[in-house]
Design brief:
Length: 189
């Protein structure tokens, strides 16, 4: 049976997934890269999952509220500012997913831009989705050789009252993510 560790940042993002033939473990990581990485590394050591699936909410500058983005590429916007020093700021999780033949039919490949701040003003960011945890989780998973994928529901457009929109859209996000995952009820494809 497939062991899937499902991660989400806050309890308001929790979605129960109907995934036959999979043993699901849920982990609330908390907000931010440090908490997320620490809690995920500990959970991977305990659970020994075949796949880590992160889901939750995200902002955007390129898409519409209500869009669901399947992220296999990740950018750390904090480290990106000093990438000229040779620090890693991009991860692509596609290779491990492909090797295990996981999540191939899940749709588009989006890029999630992660940083330790909630963006409220329109700025130029690389990527489709903006969050505060996914890059850190992709980093931990790559280090531990566990396939990783992140599915984000767009709750707000950056620069358009993002914090209020995020809070107002949490129920819509749970419903949208639930529908997305329950359509995939046939398992990892």
């Amino acid at each position: 049976m497939l062991k899937v560790l499902v991660t989400f940042a806050v309890k308001e993002e929790l979605v129960e997934i109907n995934w036959p033939d999979a043993e699901l473990y849920y982990l609330r990581t908390g907000i931010g890269k440090v908490k997320s990485a620490f809690r995920l590394a500990d959970a991977i050591n305990q659970v020994q999952p075949d796949l880590v699936l992160n889901f939750g909410t995200a902002g955007t500058i390129k898409h519409q509220v209500g869009d669901i983005l399947v992220c296999r590429k990740f950018v750390d916007r904090d480290m990106q500012k000093i990438k000229d020093l040779g620090l890693e700021c991009e991860i692509d999780s596609s290779e491990l997913l492909t090797q295990k033949d996981f999540c191939a039919a899940w749709g588009n490949t989006a890029t999630c831009n992660t940083g330790d701040s909630f963006l409220t003003e329109l700025v130029d960011v690389d990527g489709d989705a903006v969050d505060m945890e996914a890059f850190a989780q992709a980093f931990v998973c790559r280090d531990k050789e566990v396939p990783f994928i992140s599915v984000k529901y767009v709750t707000d457009v950056i620069g358009q009252n993002s914090v209020a929109h995020w809070e107002d859209k949490l129920a819509d996000a749970r419903m949208g993510l639930s529908e997305f995952f329950n359509v995939l009820h046939k398992g990892v494809q």
